[in-house]
Amino acid sequence: ASPPVKRARRAKNADAPSVEKRGGRYRSKCPVAIQERYERVLSQRFYMVERRREGNALKEEFNVLGSTGNIYTVVINHTPRCDCPDASKGNHCKHIIFVFIKVLQVPRLSSHWFQKALLSSELEEIFTSAPVAPNAVTNARVQAAYSRAMGKDGKLAYPGSSSKSAPSALQNKRMPGVDDDCPICYESMHEEQEKNLVWCAECKNMLHAACFAQCHCTRQHQDLSCVYCRAKWIVQTSTHATPVGTTKEGYINIAAAAGIDPVRDESICEH
């Protein structure tokens, strides 16, 4: 009998586009440990202090204030990461989840937010669908404390109408409804006391006073503007300082500025 004829291998098409490989194993469903951290993000309060992205790069960095007052750096790119102790152990920490869910507003039903590694197409979808920055930032004292720690101007900018140059009265203010959330911190403004809100003289929309100050306090040399319509906003300034510290692990800690307990609760995965 004649030997079997070997099939010729199909030549590779040099012009065919290469298929991107994921940098980690794909998770078809959210692991229990990550789901637990997700629940903590919903029940605790986190803030985005600062964010940085160059153009349309598939990478963005976020400085996040944790529940103990430490400032951690979260990087969202092909391999999302954070420099907190929990993430350093290989965990998908709460700070990463906060950025995905609250700041970038990745849908809860999406699988992107709990992946260890992302494809370029997934990152493009995330950044394209994300709200325009800024969206969730700290209060003015926290932002100023962080700015001083980083060698920036620590003056505070408070929006309001107590300045002599501010309008004496604003007509037709749009009071927040049941479904109206602050466009900066994502918390509800419904039934909020009016003294805790500020409003734009141009478009009459309201938002949290502290959140407005948080959003703009790093822009000391720029005119402040409405987050809704970008109209110029009149502010007053204050120079009161708030203590800034550094933990033994080397993290910037502004718990005093944030008004929170710097002692970590080891029972709730907060690191």
UniProtKB/TrEMBL annotation:
Pfam entry (one): SWIM
Keyword Zinc: yes
Limits of the SWIM-type domain: 72-104
Record's keyword annotation contains Metal-binding: yes
A molecular function GO annotation: zinc ion binding
Organism ancestry: Eukaryota, Fungi, Dikarya, Basidiomycota, Agaricomycotina
Region (Disordered) residue spans: 1-24
Species, as recorded: Fistulina hepatica ATCC 64428
Name of the protein described by the UniProt record: SWIM-type domain-containing protein
PANTHER family in UniProt: PHD FAMILY PROTEIN, RING FINGER AND SWIM DOMAIN-CONTAINING PROTEIN 2
Keywords, comma-separated and alphabetical: Metal-binding, Zinc, Zinc-finger
Biased composition (Basic residues): 1-11
